[in-house]
Amino acid sequence: MRVVRSVAELRIAVKAMREQGLRIGFVPTMGYLHEGHAALIRQSANRCDATVVSIYVNPTQFGPTEDLAKYPQDLEADQNLCLRLGVSLLFLPDTQEMYPSNFQTFIEPGRVAEPLCGKYRPGHFRGVATVVAKLFNMVQPDLAFFGQKDLQQTAVVKRMVRDLNLAVDIAVVPTIRETDGLAMSSRNVYLTPEERRRALSISLALFSAESAFRAGERDAPRLQALVQECLWGVDVLQYCELVDAQSLETIVGQVDRSAALCVAAFVGSTRLIDNILLNPHPEAQGILGVGVSQ
Ligand code: AMP
User: Fold this and answer.
1) Pocket test for ligand 1, best of 30, 33, 37 (most atoms within 8 A of CB)
2) Is 150 in the pocket of ligand 1 (CB under 6 A)?
3) Would you state the CATH architecture of domain 186-278?
4) Taking a C-beta distance cutoff of 8 angstroms, is the pair 266, 236 a contact?
5) Computed from CA positions of residues 37, 40, 46, 48, in that sequence, does the dihedral angle turn out positive or negative?
6) Which segments of the chain belong to CATH 3.30.1300.10?
7) Residue-wise pLDDT tens digits, 10-32
C-alpha cells in the first residue's frame, strides 16, 4: 500500500494505475475507521482492481459549534486496517493541500440538501459536495463508495454527479451495525457507557417501525409516531422523518414508494443519525439501486 500526502503524488500514482488499465474504486472517509468503512473498502476491493482511500477531516462541512477540533483520530490503526483490506493507495492530505490560501470556489447543492440534516447543519452539504467533487477530480475513480448511514449525503452526491456530469458511478453500501443494532459511527466513541445504552433506542425504534411496515403498516404518520414513541433514550430529537428515499421529500400519506425513516438526535452532547429503508415493492430492484446508482 502506497501512502501519499500531496495531490501531485496522488495524480502520479493514479495515472500509473490508469495506464495499467485498472478499474479504480474510491472510498472517501474522515478516518477513525470502523467496520462500516471496512465494508465500503471490501466492496471496492470486490468490484474494482485498485482501491484508493482518503482520510481527511474536512473543515468546510463542520459548523462553528461542531466537533471539528475534537474529531477522533487514530492514523496508525487506520493505516493497518487499510493495509489488511488490500487498499492500493491511501491519500492523507492536510488542509493546506485541500484548501490552499485564497480558496474561494464551492459547490452549492440544491433542494436535496435542504431537509433533514440540512436544516440543522447549515452549510454542511455545501462542504461535503465541495470536498467530494475535489476528491473525485483528484482521484478520478470509476466507482466511489458511500454508506447508507449518511443517506442524505448519498442523495447530495448522486444529485451532484448527475447535475455536473461527473464521470463516476456511485455505489451505496448498507449500514453496518454493532451486534446490538447501533449504527457504527466514528462518533460513538464520544458516548459514555450510560449514553451508549440510551443511544441504542434509536436503532431499536427504527427496527420497530420496520417490523410494523413488514407486517403491512403503510400509514406514514403512524410509522413516524411509532419511532418517536420508542426514542426514550435520546436527549434532544432533531428530526424523525419519513421521506422519499430518492428526493428526500416528506411522505405525508401512504408509503407507496421507496422510503426512508430518518432520525437525528443528541445523546448527551453527541449527535447521532440513523435511518432504515422501507420498500413497499421489495420484489423490484433495491431502493438505492443496489450498487451503482446511475
Ligand atoms: P465518515 O468517515 O464518517 O465520513 O464516513 C465515510 C464513509 O463511510 C461515508 O460514506 C459513510 O456513509 C460511511 N459509513 C460510516 N459509517 C458507516 C456504517 N455504519 N455503515 C456503512 N457505511 C458507513
Assistant:
1) 37
2) yes
3) 2-Layer Sandwich (3.30)
4) yes
5) negative
6) 186-278
7) 999 999 999 999 999 999 999 99
